[in-house]
Specification:
Elements: H1 2-21, H2 26-49, H3 56-61, H4 68-79, H5 82-95, H6 100-104, H7 106-123, H8 129-136, H9 139-172, H10 176-225, H11 228-237, H12 255-271, H13 274-280, H14 286-317, H15 335-344, H16 350-382, H17 390-415, H18 421-429, H19 433-445, H20 451-477, H21 499-506, E1 523-524, E2 527-528, H22 542-560, H23 576-579, H24 586-593, H25 602-608
Antiparallel strand pairs: 1-2
Helix pairs in contact: 1-21, 2-10, 2-16, 4-10, 4-14, 4-16, 5-14, 5-16, 7-12, 7-14, 8-9, 9-10, 9-15, 9-16, 9-17, 9-18, 9-20, 10-14, 10-16, 10-17, 11-14, 12-19, 12-22, 13-16, 15-16, 16-17, 19-20, 19-22, 20-22
């Protein structure tokens, strides 16, 4: 087929020019290997040489002796997965700056965590955040939510590891699955051996690498483009600085859906996701947890805002000479490595530092999730069926970590076929994130809701979101929803000196697609000419809708299935400001918690004698 041959020639030619431009030096390999060695060494130290007790509390909470600053850095690092470093700049590059409002949603998230959610966990001495659901509702609620947590981890962990492997493959040409195997194995190694202490201290090292890398990329990118004023001018001319205030829920990204989605996402990820709660409750007191959350919040906003703005810098850098249009880069998620090589390729070690940054982000997310997943699987699904000992518990949790590591390697084969990683992640997590956040807030805010109502509401929310998302995906496959990116061009490649891109264009021949169809009714990223349909709404709304559905279902049901009048309210199970509205004094609660008669201890009897 002539058309197929021309396409193959174009792809091969573009790939040849790309590989000539993108090269990893010995210095880059050395920096990359050094980072992996440090991570492995930390796991080895805490697993084999640290003088800590080999207990589940030590493995999962570090003996509750962790410090505020390392935990804060660890929280920031674990939120900055490779998806953040690679896909968020790609989002800004293709769709503009609106995503930054999802980052700024962290501003109200931190007070929500400090004043509403985390005090409840500390007051009830919660180790596993899903314990709270059993205390407040029943075991069925806990089991159902932990099941959604495990399912979410199964869906997302391969993504966390695949993204950096994609970046490494892009700049070295090494087989993507080979990289995935090597790095996943190292992550499993230090997580399995060192537990939460290894996770936190590798996060500290990796967080430092990420901060340095992100700042250097932003600074060098601005300098290479001609200064901040030039960046802003090009970005404004290309429509990347436009903020969308429209209320149409079908528009892909607006200030409203990005902010609301970010609010639910960060509340869910930091406040009611075991991978983060596990670290928060490893601090010795609530005061330390509060300090850690404030530091983490500001650190997160700084580094994520830089990451988001990097996409704007990247667009300004390639303004009028788009590598994707030239065929050098196949999709937006691969733009960052290309950009890095263009601005840093001539600086020894800089590409290696950036790739180390991407791997650092993914390793921190992967290790934290593996550690918390092991704890949840053991305590909720294995411990009830075996005779518990500390040695057996640690052995089971380490086996879970290894098994999930193998699964991540296999899952990478599927992830490589995704077109937009960020959109895929946001869509998948939209199934249950809103429901999970909603049920925790329901428990802390609405005393009249019982376990039967809670379970019904979660099922309702998850099934409704699953139905909504499946129908939306059918519309996308049918071409009724088509998120075309903001325009760029190739008319300034020669003037701006992009010789590699220009050479790729000159060595490829493309024929414009000819369409004979008339105007189609379609929902795009920036508007729609179709009649309104709930299935056309932006995926950024999914999390907020899921949370709202919990309350929409639970509040009416709480009057159909009211709580038992004989049930005693425990104020500690509700948020501090809700406790003040309850007609139960702390003295009554303390009386209920004290046994009516306690036999004297042996020492007491001896003293009385």
């Amino acid at each position: 087929m002539p058309g197929s041959a021309a396409s193959a020639t174009m792809v091969n030619s573009a790939a040849t020019y790309e590989m000539e431009m993108l090269k990893f030096s010995i210095t880059d390999y050395s920096i990359f290997l050094f980072l992996l060695s440090v991570s492995a060494a930390i796991g080895l130290y805490f697993g084999l040489y640290s003088k800590s007790r080999n207990t589940t509390d030590e493995y999962l909470r570090g003996g509750k002796k962790m410090q505020a600053l390392p935990i804060a850095i660890s929280l920031v690092s674990s939120q900055l997965s490779g998806v953040s470093i690679m896909s968020i700049p790609a989002e800004s590059y293709t769709f503009g700056l609106n995503y930054i409002f999802g980052v700024l949603a962290m501003l109200p998230t931190v007070p929500i965590l400090i004043h509403i959610i985390v005090p409840v966990f500390y007051d009830n001495n919660v180790v596993n955040c899903y314990e709270y659901l059993e205390m407040r509702f029943n075991k069925g609620t806990r089991r159902f939510v932990t099941l959604t947590f495990i399912m979410s981890q199964f869906l997302m962990l391969p993504v966390y590891m695949f993204i950096p492997s994609l970046a490494f493959s892009q700049v070295t040409g090494v087989n993507i699955h080979l990289i995935n195997i090597i790095v996943s194995s190292i992550c499993v190694f230090y997580t399995m051996l060192g537990g939460i202490k290894a996770v936190v201290w590798t996060d500290v090292v990796q967080g430092g690498v990420m901060l340095v890398s992100v700042i250097m990329v932003a600074v060098l990118g601005i300098m290479g483009t001609g200064g901040l004023a030039t960046v802003l001018d090009y970005a404004s001319e290309g429509g990347r600085m436009d903020i969308d205030f429209r209320l149409d829920p079908r528009i892909r990204s607006t200030i409203w859906n990005c902010f609301s989605s970010g609010l639910i996402l960060w509340t869910g990820k930091i406040g009611v996701d075991q991978s983060c709660v596990q670290r928060i409750v490893s601090l010795p007191s609530f005061q330390e947890a509060r300090k850690s959350l404030v530091v983490a919040g500001f650190g997160f906003i700084i580094i994520m805002s830089l990451t988001c703005f990097t996409g704007i810098i990247m667009f300004a850098h390639f303004f009028g000479c788009d590598p994707m249009l030239a065929g050098l880069v196949s999709k937006p998620d691969k733009m960052m490595p290309f950009f890095i090589q263009d601005i840093m390729g001539n600086l020894p070690g800089m590409p290696g530092l950036f790739i180390s940054c991407v791997f650092s982000a993914s390793l921190s997310s992967l290790s934290a999730n593996l550690n918390s997943l092991a704890g949840v699987v053991y305590f909720d699904y294995i411990k009830p069926h075996i005779r518990h000992t500390e040695a057996r518990a640690n052995g089971c949790m380490k086996l879970v970590v290894v098994a999930m590591g193998v699964y991540c390697i296999v899952g990478g084969i599927i992830v490589q076929h995704f077109n937009s990683i960020l959109q895929t992640m946001w869509t998948v997590t939209g199934i249950n994130t809103g429901a999970v956040v909603g049920v925790f807030l329901l428990g802390m805010f609405v005393p009249r809701v019982n376990g039967k109502v809670a379970v019904t509401s979660i099922i309702f929310s998850v099934l409704a979101m699953l139905w909504l998302i499946i129908k939306a995906q059918i519309n996308i496959k049918a071409g009724l929803i088509k998120y075309e990116v903001l325009p760029n061009s190739l008319d300034q490649c020669e003037a701006r000196g992009f010789h590699a891109i220009l050479a790729a264009i000159n060595h490829t021949t493309t024929t414009p697609a000819i369409t004979t169809d008339g105007p189609r009714k379609v929902t795009t990223a920036f508007g729609s000419n179709r009649e309104f349909s709930i299935f056309d709404i932006s995926f950024y709304w999914y999390k907020m809708i899921g949370a709202i559905l919990i309350f929409v279902c639970a509040v009416p049901l709480s009057y159909i299935w009211p709580p038992d009048k004989n049930d005693k309210l425990n104020p500690k199970l509700y948020s501090p400001f809700v406790r003040q509205l309850l007609n139960v004094s702390e003295a009554e609660v303390e009386l209920e918690e004290v046994p009516l008669k306690e036999p004297p201890s042996k020492e007491g009897r001896q003293e009385n004698a």
